[in-house]
UniProtKB/TrEMBL annotation, chain A:
Belongs to the sigma-70 factor family. ECF subfamily. The keyword Transcription applies. This is RNA polymerase subunit sigma-24. Pfam families: Sigma70_r4_2. GO terms for molecular function: DNA binding; sigma factor activity. It comes from the Bacteria. GO terms for biological process: DNA-templated transcription initiation.
From TrEMBL, chain B:
This is Uncharacterized protein. SUPFAM superfamilies: YVTN repeat-like/Quinoprotein amine dehydrogenase. It comes from the Bacteria. Keywords: Membrane, Transmembrane, Transmembrane helix. It comes from Kribbella turkmenica. The chain crosses the membrane at residues 41-61.
Length: 150, 410
């Protein structure tokens, strides 16, 4: 491992860090935690930079795993008054990760299951529950009415 | 709200975040992590090594403690070929030698002397063929004079350019003629001592005040020769005697062969030679001795001589007197041993009357190693292991007399 940063690694990080910071911010509900998790994921990638076949999958698996811990009681988006952020704060960590990856990263449920190391059924359930609670938190009614325009 | 409405909402919520620059920090963090991993591996290996050392020391300490407390489960093993002693004579274990006539069938000790020691047919001159480490010395009589023949450790013979005169007892060959370092041979001659350097073939003559000289023996440093005749004995410096008187009279013995060093066995005691030419009592002996025969030969721990005994209750004989080889330990911690040269049962049909071991037939000639004296028993040389009691044959003798040198040892 060279002491100076690998140019390919620098280019790779520069191209993705902004997008993944936004995703991580919405998943963790805290900018500092999101930056910390993203830096940890890129640091792990630097250790295996020349050996990893799919760097995107590697980083995303490392990036979102801490958000799935069930006993993590840190509240997301504290001291926020944005209704979208407050609605995301109503979700559990796993629901929020599935919800953001499905709707912001626009991954399929199978891709989310692979990134978060869950079964497809679990991802589907978390997606439905998250969507329902998000809509309810925004005052948009039951998810079964989602197809009806308001 | 529809699903496609969610993405703009999320974009808007995450808008206006600062642009990070993580490449350099992540790469530096990777370097630090790699360094920490290597350091942990080294520390782990050192810790494992230290633990192993501590466990080994602990096992050793506990093992040695156990060794002190727990006796060994088996008794010490006896030497190979151990023969139990027949009994005790004067408190010393004794063994019986194989009967006369059976020497040929004993296991053999391999030496440069070969299977049969006789006069050689083809001999080089000692000046042309120096003998570095003589195994044996013998004399060959020619026209009333004696030639010295030397057998080297490589089983080659050499003849010295030396004509020896007979002495009053016959052949001028003593059992202790060869020096302990194998460099020089000494011969008693009428009125003088003659030495022969076996490497350079140089002959030296030392005149002595007595004409009747019969025996020579070397001191352990191979610097002095003890020459003795009936009632006379002298110590002669043959090497390294500069500044000292070359010939000094020392206390004599009635039997010239008794004068030996560093020990001599005589008068029911083992005597230790002292530097001033006298002997001091080293230990007392209580053996049934009638007469001592031959010279005394010693190692660092034992000294051996043969004696003719009075009738032994333990080993009755009819045709001869029992003869006994006494191997006396000069260290208090080691036991002494005896080997009785008895006789075969007269009722044995194959018993040859000529095989009877008459007094004078036998003598100790030296030591094969630290625990095996070599004994001349009629026409044979035998080696007796004083620890196991086992007797082996060295060679068959086809000559009248022989003196052994250090080259006989392995």
């Amino acid at each position: 491992m060279e002491k100076s940063v690998d140019p390919d690694f620098a280019s790779y990080v520069d191209a993705r860090q902004g997008r993944w910071l936004r995703t991580a911010y919405l998943v963790y509900g805290d900018l500092e935690r999101a930056e910390e998790a993203l830096l940890h994921a890129f640091t792990r990638l630097s250790l295996h930079w020349t050996k990893v076949d799919d760097p995107d999958a590697f980083v995303q698996r490392v990036l979102y795993q801490p958000a799935l811990v069930r006993w993590n009681r840190v509240r997301a988006f504290p001291d926020e008054d944005d209704p979208v952020k407050l609605a995301l704060a109503e979700l559990t960590g796993a629901q929020r990760a599935v919800f953001v990856l499905l709707h912001l990263e626009e991954l399929t449920e199978f891709e989310v299951a692979d990134v978060l190391n869950m079964s497809h059924t679990t991802v589907h359930g978390h997606g439905l529950a998250a969507f329902s609670r998000f809509r309810a938190a925004l005052g948009a009614g039951d998810w079964r009415d989602a197809g009806d325009p308001r | 709200m529809r699903r496609e409405d969610i993405r703009p909402l999320l974009y808007q919520a995450a808008d206006r975040l600062p642009e990070p620059d993580l490449a350099d920090t992540a790469w530096a963090g990777g370097l630090e992590t790699r360094r920490r991993q290597r350091r942990n591996v080294v520390i782990g290996l050192l810790a494992a090594l230290a633990l192993a050392v501590v466990l080994a020391i602990g096992a050793g300490v506990s093992g040695s403690r156990n060794a002190e407390l727990v006796p060994p489960p088996t008794t010490p093993s006896l030497p190979p070929g151990h023969v139990p002693p027949e009994g005790q004579i004067a408190g010393i274990d004794y063994w019986l030698a194989p009967p006369a006539g059976s020497e040929r069938f004993l296991d053999r000790v391999y030496t440069p002397l070969g299977d049969r020691l006789g006069a050689p047919d083809d001999v080089d001159s000692l000046t042309e063929h120096p003998i570095e480490n003589p195994a044996a010395l013998m004399l060959e009589e020619r026209n009333g004079r004696y030639d010295a023949l030397l057998l080297g450790g490589d089983s080659t013979w050499a003849r010295a350019d030396l004509q020896l005169a007979p002495i009053s007892s016959g052949s001028p060959l003593s059992s202790g003629a060869v020096s302990p370092d194998g460099r020089t041979a000494a011969f008693p001659q009428p009125g003088e001592l003659v030495t022969l350097d076996v490497v350079t073939a140089e002959v030296s003559r030392y005149p002595l005040p007595t004409r009747d000289l019969r025996s020579v023996a070397w001191t352990p440093d191979a610097q002095q020769v003890l020459v003795s005749g009936p009632g006379k004995a002298y110590r002669v410096h043959v090497r390294g005697g500069d500044g000292e008187q070359s010939v000094v009279a020392i206390p004599p013995s009635a039997n010239p062969a008794s004068i030996t060093a560093p020990f001599r066995i005589e008068r029911d005691a083992v005597l230790r030679y002292r530097g001033n030419g006298e002997w001091a009592v080293d230990s007392e002996l209580d053996l049934p001795v009638r007469t001592w025969v031959g010279q005394t030969f010693s190692t660092y721990t034992m000294t051996a001589r043969l004696f003719v005994s009075d009738d032994l209750q333990q080993v009755p004989t009819k045709a001869s007197q029992p003869q006994v080889v006494a191997a006396i330990s000069t260290l208090r911690a080691l036991p002494s041993s005896l080997l009785v040269l008895g006789e075969a049962d007269r009722s044995t049909p194959a018993m040859d009357p000529q095989d009877v071991r008459q007094p004078g037939c036998c003598a100790v000639l030296g030591w094969y190693d630290d625990y095996k004296p070599v004994i001349q028993v009629r026409g044979w040389l035998l080696a007796w292991d004083v620890r196991s009691g086992r007797v082996q044959r060295v060679t068959e003798l086809a000559v009248d007399g022989v003196a052994l040198g250090p080259g006989i040892r392995p």
